[in-house]
Amino acid sequence: MATMEESPQLFLCPISMELMEDPVTVSTGVTYDRRSIERWFFKYGKTTCPATMQRVASLDLTPNHTLKRVIASWQDRASTSSSPSSPSDALKPMARERLPSVLAGIEGTPFKVTALKGLRLCMAGDQAARDDFVAYDGIQVLGRVMAQALAESGAGGDFSAFRTCEEAAAVLATLPLSDEESVDLVLRPECMRPMVALVQRGSAEARLHAMSILAKVSEASGARNWTDDVDVDDMVKSLLDLLSDGASSKLSSRALDVLIDVTARSRSRGARRGKGVVEVGAVRVLVELLPEADRHVTERALLLLKRLCKCPEGRLAFGEHGLAVAAVVRTVLRVSGLATRLAVNVLWLVSCAARPTERVLDDMVASGGVAKLLALLQADGSPSTKEKVVRMLRVHGAFWRQYPCIPADLKDYLKFLK
Predict the structure, then answer these.
(1) 3-state helix, strand, coil in the chain (%, to 5)
(2) Each residue's pLDDT tens digit, 351-375
(3) If 0-12 CB within 10 Å is exposed, 13-18 middle and 19+ buried, where does residue 134 land?
(4) Residue 12 in 3-state DSSP?
(5) Domain U-box, which positions (predicted)?
């Protein structure tokens, strides 16, 4: 009796390569699982049949009741047999013995997603299996599988191929990737190009896996500049696109961690790197992330803004954004001590490190920034933060006193600080 791992090909969705739960047929006559084909049509906006790449006459889905009954009958027979009923049951008890044969055949099987799911399940929580996987050149195999899947996905928009790429990354994410040899393998183009693609257009789970892999590579690299081995501009743009998509707080936090590490390790390239990050819209993305961000995301976004505002291009982009000053001011004395210190640093950079525009100074009054700076003088805080506050108030106090909206007591403080 066939196990679920050996499901007849007719029962597998051509997109997900998983057993179909609700088979439906499109106008080209091909049957898919409803969830997968609806995602293809309505989430990705495709108007072609994924299996044939022919344009569909309509997006109507016809339930395939006959196939659904046949699958249900097959499942009933499989469940009464003595054979294992799932890939995990079949693979886990003999994981270490089967790994070499599974890895040897995975590049040639048409059921890569099923095989990769089995690998992922067998290595979850099993350090010995993970060690064997690495010893049997598993990372190299995954790299080739991902590279091929990405090529097929890009060439014809094959959704099932991209799903293979996502599942391969899920397997890779189970590994510790803590040694130099493993990091070197992951940093090869056949692994890194798919990582960037997953960050750009993968599912939420796939993006988390990609972020996890990049974070492990970053941590294991130590003093080594791992960004020398990747296209930093492409990586930065992909991470910013992810942040712009309104990702979850967890995903945003991980993306910001990787951005922080990338920008820190790229400092050796000088002002050109900071300018490049600004040119792809980093300041705008970070500013617009702040209003709805939690503490962790806020602190990371402010740290990156601080770094970018150290270069003229970053200060210019900040000053030109109509909400930038207000978004940063809002975090002062509101989120955390670290966020307040970082926010003050950003405001100091855009108002004192170079000649500020009147718009920046106007926005600091309108957003309540001047009042908050004065409040910081009365609050507990680091000496360096207070020094920057005093500097801003002394340099621009005369300008701010012109505003009739500033209360008299604040004007007195500003006059006193002159």
Answers:
(1) 70, 5, 25
(2) 998 888 889 999 999 999 988 998 8
(3) middle
(4) strand
(5) 6-81
Question: Hey, what are 158's tokens?
Answer: 């094959």
Within 10 angstroms of residue 376's Cβ, the number of other Cβ atoms is: 21
Q: Are the C-beta atoms of residues 114 and 17 closer than 8 Å to each other?
A: yes
Domain boundaries, given as residue ranges, for the chain: 9-73, 96-225
Q: How much is the pLDDT for 266? A: 63
Say what the pTM is: 0.70
Q: What is the pLDDT of residues 111-127, one digit of tens each?
A: 788 888 888 888 877 88
Residue in 130, 128, 219, 133 with CA at minimum distance from that of residue 178: 219
CATH of domain 9-73: 3.30.40.10
Length of the chain in residues, anyone?
418
Burial class (CB in 10 A: 0-12, 13-18, 19+), 1: exposed
The architecture in CATH of the region 96-225 reads Alpha Horseshoe (1.25)
Tokens of 120: 């992922």
Question: CA 337, CA 342: separation in Å to the nearest integer?
Answer: 9
Whether residue 145 contacts residue 112, with contact meaning beta carbons closer than 8 Å, is answered with yes
- How far is residue 379's CA from residue 382's CA, in Å, rounded to a whole number? 10
